[in-house]
Each structure stands twice: as structure tokens, then as C-alpha cells.
Amino acid sequence: MKIIDVEQGTPEWLQARVGIPTASAFDRIITSKTLKLSAQAAKYRYELIAEWTLGHPLDSGTNAWMNRGSDLEAEARNAYEFLTENTVEQVGFVTTDDGLIGCSPDGLVGDDGGVEIKCPGAAKHVENMRSHDDYRIQIYGCMWICERAWWDFVSYCPGFSPVVRRVERDDEIIGKIEKAVRKFVDDLQAQKEIMVNG
Questions:
Q1: Does pTM top 0.90 for this prediction?
Q2: CB under 8 Å to 79, separation ≥6 — which residues?
């Protein structure tokens, strides 16, 4: 694990991610429900190759939900720290030792844990009270890359009680994610070679 000391959301953070598959998009490589190859994998690979070729992100724009998350994340982190008595260490971008795969954790907790914070609208928050399945590939991907034993999923929406759900490490699921992502990276590297050598 390597930590790149950049502030999330900055141009430096965006640049650190160029051409690298990240945990937030692992569900475009392997599906959350079946843990099988996603139909979106080829398109995602093309996007990463285009970024790598150009040397910058394809789209650094934001949308209303991303802005909401940015606006509420500090408040949500404070609520999480208060409820759990955990201290969250904010980090920029974390990669595997080879630098080919990465993630942007919402925080690391002690030596063993991490946290993923979502700030959805009211209806999605109610759904998150029942399940974190939509985010499970991202959570296990972060656990793998950051070499952690557990990860807390947090859903935060003003007007509701926060959801805090501990996800314990599952090496079988992480193994399937790692295998799929490593295969994806092998294909990505092969495509880059073709781009360079013709």
C-alpha cells in the first residue's frame, strides 16, 4: 500500500488517478451481486486508456450529488467520530504497491479499519438503512488496497439518524475482486503497449 499525499477533489488528486482503475469504479469491472465480469469493463478500460494517452482526466466536472457529498462529508465524518469514538485519518489517494490500482478512502481508522461515507438523498438513505450492497465492491476494494480488517459504511442524511454498518474483511470476496481487477489491469497494460508500439 502506498499513500499519495494529496487533498481529495483537487487537481493534484485528479491527476494522481489518471489511467488507474479505482475502487469507486470496481463495480464497472466486477458486478456486486454475482461477482462476475461486468459488461461495463471494456468501456471503462477505453476511458482509462484515453486518460492515460491524454495525460489528464477525461471529465473533472461534478454533479449535484457529488457537490452534496462534498458539502456534507465533514459533518458526516464528525457524526461518525462522535457515534463511534473513532478518530478518522483523512488520506488522499492510496494505491497498491505497484501503483496500478487505487482508491480514495473517506478515512482510515487506526491500524485496522477504514470508513466509506455516503451523503445521499432521503429515499436512498432509507434504502441504505437496510443494505449497503450497492457499495460492497467499493468497500471490499478499499479494504484490499488499504490492507484493512474492517470498513465502516456510513450513510448520512440530515433529518435522519446516521447509518453506521461495520463490514468485516471477507478474503473470498476480496480474492474474487483482486483476480478480476488484476485481469482488467493486465488487459489495460496490454492495450497501452499496443498504443505505444502500434
A1: yes
A2: 154, 156, 162
